[in-house]
Model the fold of this input.
Amino acid sequence: MDTFSTVALGVLQGITEFLPVSSSGHLVIGQHLLGWKEPNVFFDVCLHVGTFLAVALVFRRDIALLVRGGLNWLRHPLSGNPHERDEARRIFTLVLWGTVPTGIIGFAFKDLFERLFSSVTAVGFSLLVTGTLLWLSRRKSLSWGLSPIDMRFRHALLVGLAQGLAIAPGLSRSGTTIAVGLLLGLQREWAGRYSFLLFVPAVLGAVTLEAFHLKAVPHPLSPVLWGTVAAAVTGVVALRFLLAMVQRGRFHVFAPYCWALGTISLAVMLFHHGNP
Done:
């Protein structure tokens, strides 16, 4: 594990975690091209920490609101503003409902998802699905749709279900959740915010579970730390760019890229298997 490889994968993670093109799919392809035989769990955990720091920075106000909502939900209000208390409690409840299907899918199909991470073919098919979802959402990119107050719990469950399925490499988490949110009629701005509020408990849970499966910590640590920093810095830039694209109703422009990369991945694997 050298610094060039970890920084390259960190940049790849930071960009593709937030752009709707599947970070997991790109990491599978990237590690395959770099000759890594299997994913390094510790390094993957660190990359997720890096992208979490990016979300925490960009959405610091929303995350603070989410925490206050949880405390308010437990009858410990931290704000004297009734409107802010109601908004915080509503957002917390929606995130809670959206997290439930993600957690169930993650636990129930953990082994299946782990096997898919070694399959470039599975990534190729999933990228084609991601591109199709992004393209379908183009007619539903509404600025006047459902707000947090208007959104129903069934909507939260469906977006959470999409996030759970997006554990599979090649299915973009941000792309799938935002596209499903737009298809359900959510406001553009709220669809983006809700997607990344759901990211917070999902990534914290994933990092915790992966940490329990650590078998060894690589030495030296400096290449891993540089990769983590690269993921965080590029993640901030990519996240701000994505939110601007969603707000302008241009979310679907990433679809052709997903289709192209998915097709190339499948073609390369077909050629590889056909020419031992």
Q: What stands out?
A: The chain has a mean pLDDT of 84. The chain is about 75% helix and 0% strand. The chain has one domain: 3-274. Residues 3-274 form one domain.
